[in-house]
Amino acid sequence: MTQTTLPSPAAAPLATPHPIPVPHIAAIAFPALPMMPEENGAPAASVTRLNLNESATPPSPKALAAAQAALEAAHRYPDHHALALTTEITARTGVARDRIVLGNGSGELLVQSALVALSAGDAAVMPSPTFPTCGKGVQMAGARIINVPLRADGANDVPAMLAALTPDTRLFYLCTPNNPTGGLLNAADVAQAIAEVPDSCLLVIDEAYHEFAAQEGGDAVLPMLAARKGPWVITRTFSKAYCLAGLRIGYALVSDPGLAAGFARLRHNFNVSRPSLAAALAALQDDAHVAQSIARTVQERQRLAAALAPHCAQILPSFANFLTVRLHQPAAPIVAALQAGGIAVQYLGWPDTQGAIRISIGDAAESDRLLAALIAAVAA
Ligand SMILES: Cc1ncc(COP(=O)(O)O)c(C=O)c1O
Can you give the pTM of this predicted structure? Predict the structure, then answer.
């Protein structure tokens, strides 16, 4: 009698090699966040943080009190439907609750915008450089990015972006004011995008700095979108003018309930915490505090721009809580010198090999520290 030997499982060849992470995830290009030192649960005083476009103004005391009160019920999951907050957003925007989506920061909603619109192999038209998170979502979807250079003033170049559309483009991303340059789109550009981005394409408008732009006479984008037949999303955040970056909460206003339902499928349960929901509602209702946060930022930005002007080749017009400057020399060594002196700013490899520096608006003492260090580094 013959005996059959079974092959050992370890020796069996894999049917199909399957690298993990899968190639389109391994290929995701996304700038790494810098390591920022912390001390006792707060940012360390040893570093002046002018690199993340945070607010220098602390949160509204009413928002802090609301978050504190909400902590009492921290053993219960938050209201996933965010009835109180979305009702207030409806009252302020006119957008019905079934067209509002909440995110763990607006960054989460930018990723979802890409995932809801794109299949593998599709394309997304984006300005370059811009805030990278929507582009990260594009890569997560296995789609490709068509980068279109900014205008020289740092705003998105809408006609050039429209000219870059391909038949397989399913997402068109605008950022106004644009991060990292601060440039704002005017009504004519927005109207052209609304009219000419095909209905087969999701028009995403990132308004993280909306409240600053609105205060400075920027055109209101939301009412213009009534003219669009195709799908659209506006993303906004509580991280900037509302001074709640650490609580991670943002919202999207979308064209129709069906699109909102698509976002809901992607959304993790209870993705926004109880204290964040409570603080955001109180911050939204504290009109005096947000007005003060914007006014302080704009005043300090103007003061800093005036003081920097003699030392810079160009200061880009900014409608947000940061300034982007070009020097008469390469920016990278200056950024490194500032970093060595405990001042964090953001280097940009734009618009040429000399690069540029994005400086978030801090308080007066932080601006003075930055000014002194930058003047010394430029002269060295
Ligand atoms: C243009 C833009 N969009 C979105 C975000 C994301 O903000 P958050 O996720 O804190 O809402 C930022 C943050 O800097 C930004 O600059």
Answer: 0.95
